[in-house]
Amino acid sequence: MAEWRDQMNTIEKRMAEGKFVLIAEIGVNYYDIAAKMGISNMEAAKLMIKEAKESGIHAVKFQTYKAGTLAAKASPSYWDTTEEPTTSQFELFQKFDSFGEAEYRELAEYSESLGIEFLSTAFDFESADYLDSMMNVYKISSSDLSNLPFIEYQAKKNKPILLSIGASNLDEIRRAVDTIRKVNDKKITLLHCVLEYPTPLEHANLAKIASLKAEFPDCYIGYSDHTKPTEECDVAKLAYVLGAQVIEKHFTLDKTLKGNDHYHAMDPIDAKKILAAIDRMDMLKGDAELKCLDTESAARSNARRSIVANGDIPAGTVITEKMLTFKRPGTGISPSEIDKVIGREAAVTIEDDTILSMDMIK
Question: 144 and 26 in one domain?
Answer without folding.
Answer: yes
